[in-house]
Design a protein that fits this description.
Layout lengths: L5 H12 L3 H11 L7 H21 L5 H18 L12 E6 L7 H12 L3 E4 L6 H11 L3 E5 L6 H11 L9 E5 L4 E2 L2 E2 L7 E3 L2 H10 L13
Parallel strand pairs: 1-2, 1-3, 3-4, 4-7
Antiparallel strand pairs: 5-6
GO molecular function, one term: cobalamin binding
Organism: Arcobacter ellisii
Keywords: Cobalt, Metal-binding
């Protein structure tokens, strides 16, 4: 995170952990201008670090399960407020399946990716976090998406992710799309865990945007706010 946002980060975190919903909303609203009213940049610079910090506090038992869920719910509400749901499916749009894998408890990060893709004209199906490996793979085979984006926040789920990616790439008769992986679980001590069968490993939305452009998808030059 950029150090110039540290004071704002601490203020957001304090309101988040204390369940001060209105104050949290007000801080987001007032400070969006720092990012040219670009909600996706705000998410990248502040919301993602907030999510990571909350997860750290929970893992260290410095935050109760109830408070952790409350914080995650509040962040989810803010994201949904600023980014409208795409209610229309278009068969002409490129199809994307997004999902977490393994025993992940949080899917907010992958939901943000889904919102970003919808804002750029993709038809997105979020399979959530409750499917078994077999159910996830079979759903991908059945729906035949152009892209599959899989996320892990826990390093313990990387092996599961690797198994899924390897199986999807094992039979081109069943799946021809590209596989993109990401999530905090892939980055340990600032080093990325490589899964060679994946087509791309994304650190953030900017990374994802650049890769999608290499596939000749039309992506906005600026990650504009969708309101």
């Amino acid at each position: 995170m950029n150090n110039k946002y540290q004071e704002l980060f601490e203020e957001l975190l304090s309101n988040l952990l204390n369940g001060q919903k209105n104050n949290f909303y007000d801080l987001v609203q007032k400070n969006l201008k720092l990012f040219d009213n670009n909600i996706f940049l705000f998410i990248q610079e502040l919301i993602n670090p907030l999510m990571y910090k909350v997860g750290q506090l929970w893992q260290l038992n410095e935050l109760s399960v109830a408070k952790e869920h409350l914080a995650s719910s509040l962040i989810d509400d803010v994201i949904n407020y600023y980014i409208k749901d795409n209610l229309f499916l278009d068969i002409d749009k490129p199809k994307v399946i997004i999902s977490t894998v393994g025993d992940e408890l949080h899917n907010l990060g992958i939901k943000i990716v889904g919102k970003f893709l919808e804002s750029n004209g993709f038809s997105v199906k979020n399979l959530g976090s409750k499917l078994s490996n077999k159910e996830l793979i079979n759903s991908i085979y059945e729906l035949k998406p152009d892209l599959v984006i899989l996320s892990v926040t826990l390093p313990s789920n990387v092996a599961t992710l690797q198994q899924i990616v390897k199986e999807l790439k094992s039979d081109y008769n069943l799946f021809l799309g590209k596989i993109i992986i990401g999530g905090q679980g892939l980055f340990v001590n600032n080093k990325m865990i490589s899964i060679k069968e994946a087509d791309f490993c994304s650190k953030n939305l900017e990374d994802l945007k650049i890769f999608l452009k290499t596939l000749n998808y039309s992506i906005k030059n600026e990650m504009e706010e969708i309101i």
